[in-house]
Predict the 3D structure of the following.
Amino acid sequence: MKDAENDPYYELRKKLLGLGDSSFRKTYYPVLRHKQMELERFRIILDHINDIVFLISYPDGIIVDYNLRAIEKLGLKPHEVISREISAFLFDDLGKPVSLKAMKDKGERILIRAEIACRSCGKMPVEADLSFTKYGDEIYCAIVCRDITERIQMERLILDSESQYRTTIEAITDGILVINSSGRSIIYNEAFRDMYIRFTGEEIPEKIDVSDFFKQTGLSESGDIHALMDSMDSGEIIGKVLLDDKMAVIEIKKIPIIHEFRHEQSVLIIRDITLNSVLDELRKDVLYQLNRNMEQFAILNDEIRNPLQALSGTVELKNPALAGEIQPFINEINMIVRRLDIGWLESEKVRSMIKRHYGVSVLEKDEIRDAVHYIREFRLGDENTINP
């Protein structure tokens, strides 16, 4: 025993045989087993995630490891994948094999859109996360690929929907302006772009501040516009835009977009109603003038009948024979006066007669005159369209 204790390899022998408190079996083995169990748990997790995982040696691009999902998605057997170059399976968005060297030149970790060649489905679109790591003297690239087929389909649906939405608002002849809660433009259509240039005399910027637009057009001077924009409710106002000796009448409708009880966006529908406003004013003035003149006709009718009756009586007393010849003409005049009484005379003849005999003009108002100037220049392009 004493010789054994003097043996320089005695302690080492005890460790190898598992004897003593410092044996390899009691110290190193449990640590290794724990590490092995951790690796096995990690491997189980790795094999059951939906993403495809490759471990690639750099710079040769050889696949040294992969997870179970990679085999399932590729539709291949393990020996058909291992030791193959990743360029045989992974392609960039242009259809070219992915070059690890080109990827590493961009950074230690990059995210790209790519495609994986699958035996069952052809090429599957993926989002590939490439991460380069050094282990000892070796460099490896871990590639995690996520299937984005559904995402791409959703993006296409969104693009199609946006295209349809854009086509729809461009087809609307009214100006459409969508703004956020700060009054900044999000989108606008061609009709609003033309309106902006016409009213401000400037090219439309990429982003529009609606308050600046209202200031440039003079609409901000009206308190109604501020009340409309500050409100969370739908509403509309009618404003006037002055352009030198011209005047446009526009109608602004606001439709708020409420999300989770917050006023996040608003849709402004801006309609040029100058022509309708002028026609309404003309119609009101014409009707007013016609009514006024019809009242005068009612008075004139009596003034006409009285001399007719006096003429008829005088002629009948002095010359009964001549009275018989004159009476049909007197009756005809009386019939015309009667028709005026009950309004049977056509409105166009009345209007022509009023204008010819009384010189009535329905465009004496300054605003109507300025609006007509605007319509002639910007809306109709034909001075003969409205002839007051």
Summary: Confidence is low (pLDDT under 50) at residues 358-364, 380-388. DSSP finds 13 helices and eleven strands in the chain. Residues 257 and 263 are 6 Å apart (CA to CA). Residues 274-318 form the longest helix (45 residues).
